[in-house]
Design brief:
Number of strands: 10
Number of helices: 8
Shape: globular
Distance between the termini: 43 Å
Strand content: 15-25%
Oligomer: single chain
Structural class: alpha/beta
Helix content: 25-40%
């Protein structure tokens, strides 16, 4: 299991200065979307040129960082937001609760409020509230899956600031996320799972034996139903931070439930990579997936 320092260093690597906004995209940074006493904001990515009178689909982007670090404006999130905006999507990249106090389930509720914000502002943003998806990497992948599989679940519903607004989504992309906190394993140097699980998690202070129901409730695989949103899963074969069996377990659970899904194992990739790197490009794959489920 990766120590917290390693996860924070990984998160820090993703927060380096982002490149200049590409042509065809506009970015509005640090938009308020939570209650007035919250400091977390979102970055809004939009296509620069949009057909008049046509509503766009929208995507919520959730950053990683071991649930304790990371930022909405990291390089991975910038690449995701600009790639999808150029493809016609309005994207909200959100920050969420990171501090140990009330980390869970506040972090999930913050992400759900990102979905609700998109719906509450759909008319102003010219967004179709019926066509919203979610994507995230690492801890953000875990939260994206939880958003997708617990849509409108009263057990996780935020109390404010959008009561009564739906937080359901219609499609999900998980990039190397934790899918079952109970079965996460360590790995060897090549990324091969070593079969050793841990009874600690950075999500909350309770150990597995002391709060088995809480651990289960925080695991996306336990919320899968036959009507769960279609899911695209991307995971590196050499991932030494989140073992690759996490994604295989998710794919098996989705198949068993009859949910449309696709698992892509990225040969040679480790962890925390963006959709487009010097070695590979999965931007088109993600765009095609969202187009199939959110454009009509």
């Amino acid at each position: 299991m990766k120590p917290i320092l390693t996860l924070l260093l990984t998160a820090a690597a993703l927060t380096a200065a982002t490149p200049q906004t590409p042509d065809g995209v506009t970015i509005e940074r640090d938009v308020s979307f939570l209650a007035s006493d919250r400091k977390e904001k979102l970055d809004l990515y939009q296509p620069a040129d949009r057909p008049a009178g046509k509503l766009a689909p929208a995507i919520l982007i959730i950053h990683g960082g071991g649930w304790v670090g990371g930022t909405k404006s990291g390089n991975r999130e910038f690449v995701t937001g600009t790639t999808l905006a150029k493809a016609g999507y309005v994207c909200a990249s959100v920050d969420y609760q990171l501090s140990a106090k009330n980390r869970w389930p506040t972090n999930l509720q913050d992400c759900k409020n990102g979905v609700r914000w998109l719906r509450a502002n759909a008319a102003r943003l010219h967004v179709d509230p019926a066509r919203i998806g979610v994507i995230g990497g690492s801890a953000g992948g875990h939260l994206a899956l939880m958003v997708a599989y617990t849509g409108n679940d009263p057990d996780f519903a935020p109390a404010e600031p959008y009561p009564g607004v739906s937080d359901s989504v219609s499609a999900c992309v998980d990039m190397y996320g934790i899918t079952d906190v109970r079965t996460r394993q360590g790995t060897d140097k090549s990324g091969a799972p070593d079969g050793k699980t841990s009874d600690n998690t950075q999500l909350f202070p309770e150990k597995l034996a002391d709060a088995p129901e809480k651990w289960a409730a925080a695991s996306p695989v336990t919320h899968i139903r036959k009507d769960s949103p279609p899911t695209l899963i991307l995971h590196g074969t050499n991932d030494t931070t989140v073992d690759r069996d996490q994604s295989k377990q998710l794919a098996d659970a989705l198949k068993k439930a009859g949910v449309e899904s696709k698992l892509i194992m990225v040969e040679g990739a480790n962890h925390a990579w963006a959709l487009k790197t010097s070695k590979f490009d999965y931007g088109d794959e993600v765009v095609r997936f969202f187009d199939r489920h959110l454009k009509r």
